[in-house]
Amino acid sequence: MYFVYILKCENGSLYTGITNDVTRRFEEHKNGKGGRYTRSSKVVSILYTEEHPDKSSALKRESQIKKWTRAKKKALISRDKELLKKL
């Protein structure tokens, strides 16, 4: 089981990643042991998680979300399906 997640950073930016353990990975990001970006932009909270059956599907979804605009990511986080379709 893998998860795609979106984190909120101190500077207001959104960070998207994948893991098989969201809590552990969030702690790694908080402690400066996560990705390069989160070492300089400290994480504040987990805004969104999505479950996937395997790593391949999680990686594909992560790649898709990373290409989205901030507005579309926010619509996903708020689970606003109508707005998501429009963006």
TrEMBL record:
SUPFAM superfamilies: GIY-YIG endonuclease (SSF82771). Residues 1-75 form the GIY-YIG domain. SMART domains: GIYc. InterPro entries: GIY-YIG_endonuc (IPR000305), GIY-YIG_endonuc_sf (IPR035901), UPF0213_domain (IPR050190). PROSITE patterns: GIY_YIG. It holds the Pfam family GIY-YIG. Belongs to the UPF0213 family. This is GIY-YIG domain-containing protein. It comes from Candidatus Zambryskibacteria bacterium RIFCSPLOWO2_01_FULL_45_21.
